[in-house]
Structure formats: structure tokens, C-alpha cells
Amino acid sequence: MISPAASAVPSTPSGELSPGLFAAALCVIFFAFYMTDHSVTTSQTEAFTQTAAEMEQAAGGGDTVRRLVFLSLAGIGLFLLLGAEARPWRITLAGGLAIAFLLWAGASVLWSVDAGMTIRRLVVIGCCFLAALGIGRRMSGEQICLLVLICTSVCLLIGIGAEIALGTFKPWSGDYRFSGTQHPNTQGMSLTALCLSAICLARKVPSWKTACYGLFAVGLLFLILTKSRGSAAGLLFALGMIWMLHTSSRFKFVAGLSIAWVLSLGMMFVELNGMKASDVSDLVLLGRAEDAHSLTGRAPLWTELSYYIAARPLQGYGFQSFWTADHIDAITDEMQWAIREAHNGYLETTLSVGLIGAGLLLAAVLAGMATTARMYLKSGDATYSFAFGMCAFGLLNSFSESGMTNPLFGPVMTCAALSQAVYFAASQPAAAPQEPSPLARDDGRTGPPYAWDSPAFPRS
């Protein structure tokens, strides 16, 4: 077996791409998503987004370049999917629920308010699903994390360079938000993927530990600079959930008490030093406390959208077809700011495919998390925790953002990592006998020990 430290692309015994094919797939995937989701002038636009007129024009139909990009994703997905022989198919509960969701989304064209838009969105999601399946079947877990780490790191570098060139890189300014080539909230999701992939690779490939932790630190720094509260909270939640996977119940209990104790000490410190509540809230809200009472205008928007949901609660308005030009115009006039999303993944999905579709998708995500957690605990393969962590991030982030419900790089790579666990059975050769480790569990249970970097942690 090839050691991870001896190869430019980490190797696993269960189906992986050669370095050449991996590099080619990486280039296609990177340019596909960069051309559709990024713009070097984002930091110069008002509120980092499109105007209402541009949103209405985009809702009218996708451009030719965007169609070709998603077709290229479908092509690379089919190439990888049909060329793979190492991983046989299997359908788990999570995989079945995901297919049921896609079938319901496809059926929504029958009651959609804009059948043409629904069909276009179904083609896009179909292309992304094929890409995710191909990546999940042909790439190893290390390669998926490496692909995510490289793509997000390059996008971050391009974004920093774009802001410096445009003169908008001013982290010392009080109202500065790092956007790079995307909206700060979308950039926050991308940087979360960077951080989680770096953590997983650091624990999977020991020789890369220093570089991966360095990239994690850089990603975390710029995530803070985006001032995206939902992304920052989501990353902390994801890291906490991953950490809880490999700790004992006793340790979880002690850690919970310790956290409560630290928070109590913090409150005492604030009180004894006479700090104002506004100072503390400004720190917690990353310097964006001015609209915290309404979640930066989200609460009134959610109230307005609830009336639309009440009109079609079960079936919705058609898969990703609620935001027609008429709806954008009406809601923008009501809210007095340009809107093309619900800023809440749960509401967004309900508007799209109703409570039935939203329930199927949520059940698929939770079942997928359970599957990846079980496989991580069984094999000790840290790369399974990437999909688990991104799903945990999505569950929390979706309370304030809709990004994880859109065909963006982060969600598609999450689906690719999930598909490896829920659609394909990886055939692992028998492990060579090893000497018992002094840090191995002595409680009779299987799975990784409580410390990720223990000598007893199995490596593929």
C-alpha cells in the first residue's frame, strides 16, 4: 500500500483517481464553479449583491455560459461515474431519502408557478448530482478533501488580490467586510469548507499537518473578517459536533460543566470590570450589532414570506421557482431592499417544494450525518467527518442563510462526500496486524480513541 506521505495525492486502497486525472478533474470543477459563482468586482458593488433589476433579469433565464458550465459538470460526473469499478453501488436510508426528494422536486414541475424555470433548475441540480456521484465514487476521501482545500484556497487568494487591486481591502476599517469574489456570507460558507477540509486532512495525512493547520488559521482569520455571523457560528457548531464524535460520555459531561464554568467566569469578568452590554454584543456579533434586533432585516422578510408559504404549504411553488421576476419585484418593494432569497434555508426549501419536500431533504441530511458518523467511528477515517461537519454547519447556518440549498461549490462537495458513504460501498483490504497501542481503548468497544492523533488511530 502506498503511504500518504509518499504520494502527491493521498492514496487509498478503495478506488481513487490517478494524479493526472485528479488534476484534470480539479481544473474542470474549479473553473466551472468560479465562472458561475464569482466576480472580481464583488467588493465594489453595493451591499455586495445584484440590483433588483439584475435579479429580475437573472430570474428570467440563465445565460449560455452558465448552461455550458453545468453541462461540463455533468460530463465530468458521468466520466468519473461510469469509469469507476472499485466501489459497488448500494442504497442506504439516506440515499433513498435523497432520491425521494429529487423525485418530488421533479414532480413539482406539474404545479410550478413557472414550469420553464423549474425545468431549468432541475437540469442544474441534475448536473450537480451527477458530478457529486462521480466524485464520490471515483475519488478517495482524501482526494475530495484535497480538492475542496485547493479550490477554496485559490479562490481566497484571488479574492484577496482582487480587493487589493481595487483598493477595497481595508480590514482596519470598522465597517469592512471581506468579500473577495463573493458575497461575504457566501464567502463565509466557502471558508468553512476550507477550514473543515484542512482539519480532516491534517488528521488523515500526518505529514501535511503543519500546512493544513496553517491554512485552517488563515481561513478562520478571513472568515472572521467576512463578519458573517451565521458562518462563524456554523463553523464552531460543526467543529464541536466533530469533536463530540470521538469523546466518551464522561468527557462530554465534564466538558459541558467546564464550558458552563468558563461562561460564568466570563459574565463575572464583564460585570466586575463595568463593561457595557453593547460592547459585549458588538464583540459577539462581529461588529454588526446595529440590526441585531431584526437579524439585519431578516425577521420582517420571514414574516412576509410566511404568507406565501401559507398559500401553498404542502407543495410549494415549484423547485427553486418561487423567486420569479414578479415575486422579486413585489417583495423588494415591500422590504425596500433588493431580495432574491429567503435568507433562511428552511423557508427557502419550503417555498420551493413545500413542507413535504423540506421534510424529505431534512430527513436525508440527518440520515446522512448518522451514516457518516457511524462509518467514521467504525473505520477511524477522518475524511468522513468532512461531510458530517458540513452537514452540521448547514443545519445551523440555514437558520440565517440560504446558501447550503443552492448549487454552489460547498453544497455540491458536501453531497460528493456524502455520496461516498450513502451510495457506494468501499471495499477495504484486511489491515495488517499491529502491536496493541498503550492508548487504545480498553472498554471493549470499536472505533477511534479519544484523541485523533493517538498512535491507535487507524490510517488507511
Draw up the topology in text.
Blueprint: H1 19-37, H2 52-59, H3 64-82, H4 93-107, H5 115-138, H6 141-166, H7 184-204, H8 209-226, H9 229-245, H10 249-272, H11 277-284, H12 298-311, H13 325-335, H14 345-379, H15 384-397, H16 409-422
Helix pairs in contact: 1-3, 1-6, 2-13, 3-5, 4-14, 5-16, 6-7, 6-16, 7-8, 7-9, 7-15, 9-15, 12-14, 14-15, 15-16
The residue-averaged pLDDT reads 80
SSE-based structural type: mainly alpha
Q: Got a strand count?
A: 0
Q: Helix coverage percent of residues?
A: 55-70%
Radius of gyration: 22 Å
State the distance separating the first and last CA atoms: 9 Å
Total of domains: 1
Uncertain parts: 1-14, 275-286, 427-460
| Shape summary | globular
Region (Disordered): 432-460
Protein name: O-Antigen ligase
Subcellular location: Membrane
Transmembrane segments: 20-36, 65-84, 91-113, 119-137, 144-166, 186-202, 214-245, 251-270, 345-370, 382-399
Task: Please characterize this protein's 3D structure.
The protein has 16 helices and no strands. It has 460 residues and is mainly α. The protein has one domain. Helix 3 packs parallel to helix 5 and helix 12 crosses helix 14. The longest helix is centred in the last third of the chain and has 35 residues. It is globular and about 55 Å long. The N and C termini lie close together (9 Å). The N terminus and C terminus are likely disordered. It is found in: Membrane. Its main location: membrane. It comes from Lignipirellula cremea. Keywords: Ligase, Membrane, Transmembrane, Transmembrane helix.
